[in-house]
Amino acid sequence: MARWLLKTEPGTYSFDDLVKDRKTVWNGVTNTTALKHIRTMAKGDEVIIYHTGDERTAVGTATITSKPYPDPEADDEKLVVVDIKAGKPLASPVTLATIKADKAFAGWDLLRIGRLSVVPVPDAMWDRLMELAE
């Protein structure tokens, strides 16, 4: 099982929207590296939803519920999507400033490649994020 961080602009589609909808198709990703990550996702993978923009905060969890498949709304076969279902909000959202200040996250793609919308989360970093969220 892999773990991922998925970024979303809360004004476009927030974690609260996902909770209300219960599930959604995670689409709109066009970056080559992010699409490569989506192609490696599997049903059951865990996700942290991260709000971008002014918030810059990890806010909740979700689960991948499908294998990657071609985006049915795109004319480009290279664009893939996955289905996700809402998990729980983090008891204490974790800000980007907190993540940057914690040595446990040194070298993480979230910090190294800030524009990347799909980021793998190594197990140790996932565990640390969950600790910070308690």
From TrEMBL:
Domain EVE: from-to ranges: 3-132
Pfam families, per database record: EVE
Name listed for the protein in its UniProt record: EVE domain-containing protein
Native species: Humisphaera borealis
